Amino acid sequence: MLSCCDYCDAGESCFEIKTEDESIDVAESSRDAKSHPLACRPSDERFATIKCLDEPIRVCSKPKSFSCARCEKSFSSQRILRRHMNIHSCRFKCCQCGKCFRSNAALTTHIRIHSGEKPFECSVCEKRFTTARNLIVHSRIHSGEKPYKCSNCGKCFRENSKLTAHRRIHSGEKPFECSVCGKRSTTAGDLTKHRRIHSGEKPYKCGECGKCFRENSNLTSHRRIHSGEKPFECSVCGKRFTQARCLRTHSRIHSGEKPFKCQVCHKSFSQHCQLTSHTRVHTGDKPYNCSLCNKSFSQISILLRHKRRIHSDRRPYHCPFCGKLFKITDNLMQHVRVHAATKEFSCRHCSESFRWHIQLKLHLLKSHDEGTFFTCHVCLKKFSRKDHLEEHIQRHEGVKPYICDGCQKCFCTSGELRRHQVVHSDVKKFCCGFCGKDFKRPRGVKEHYRRCRDVVEFDYML
């Protein structure tokens, strides 16, 4: 029986189970052959079970003096190099995706990705896995075992590979470099995933809807959309999630934990992505560029929002009261308040109430002298919002950064540009709530609405 060593990369012939018929010098061996039948050939150390394959590295530290001429990867023996060359010669090739492997055992494990076969089952939760190793690592979730400890910070891990990647946080080492863009990664797995961005490869396909993914974990999460499965439950409020990552992020709402700290202003965040976005406030970095107007943004979500609002004519959200169409849900929600009788923003100094927060803010400034006005240094006009002041100053300076694609006319604000673009567009986003007639401008629908309402009321009286 043969198995694989993950540490010396020796493949199936590295670990070998000895039979009882073979003669073993017990005096020279530190472990009994019957109770420890697995032997590592590079080191001659013996192990009791296949779990040795996932235990901390003990030996297998031979110098890697045999290099592959095609990819420059190095190995500790010529035999291991010959096995590696099977990848380049495509001796063991997947007939479904064309990927090549160094051994038939590795190919067999890979084929389970396509077939969905998971022959190894957890005895506690009945979750199934494609390899015995994955089952061993998973079992530590139930046992709580984390045998791999970082000597720098004391953090423990269930897998040795996680500890190795974690140590590089302390050392700053990123040994894996992308040959296309030069980006460096801490693990080979991260580099493989990154390369798929350039190649466009998405090898993991959903059997129900055909959608493809770059990572198997993304496919697993996607499948739960079809099944409705939410296996991760919050122990505090009972809310369920499709991913463990989402549960960990949610649990910080209850604990108040904010483990991600800004090194500049020491502000803390509950999510790493929030910290990444925040640091761009200090650096001024705006890595996301609009391909249509070359405007830059600090977050991809803001870029997508910009494209929907400025460059897209699609208006999928409509008002149920008047039929007006909107590009984003935020604008629709604000618009619906026009029809609602409620005024949710109340002044704490008097009985006045307002539909909009900006109306309350302006009321506090004018009536109760609460807050700060933004004053124009040219004409001393006061504004309740800083962006309104900035737009006003542009008028003094004659700056008109917004250009119409149809006629090259320039405008001070994006709102003025949008109102002007109606001239060139056939889109009629305003609709009469009585007869359904469409209009380009709100002024037209308002005038029509009054006439149409009088006609409908008169017909009703008849």
Question: What's the short story on this structure?
Answer:
This protein is 37% helix and 16% strand. It starts with a strand and ends with a helix. It is α+β, with helices and mostly antiparallel strands and 462 residues long.
Provide structural commentary:
The longest helix is centred in the C-terminal third of the chain and has 20 residues, at 442-461. By secondary structure, the protein is of the alpha+beta class. The N and C termini lie far apart (95 Å). A hairpin with a 6-residue loop joins strand 21 (288-289) and strand 22 (296-297). Helix content is 37%, strand content 16%. It has 14 helices and 32 strands. Among the domains are: 2-71, no CATH class; 260-311, 2-Layer Sandwich (Double Stranded RNA Binding Domain). A four-stranded antiparallel sheet has the order 1-2-3-4, with no helix packed on it. The radius of gyration is 33 Å and the shape is elongated.
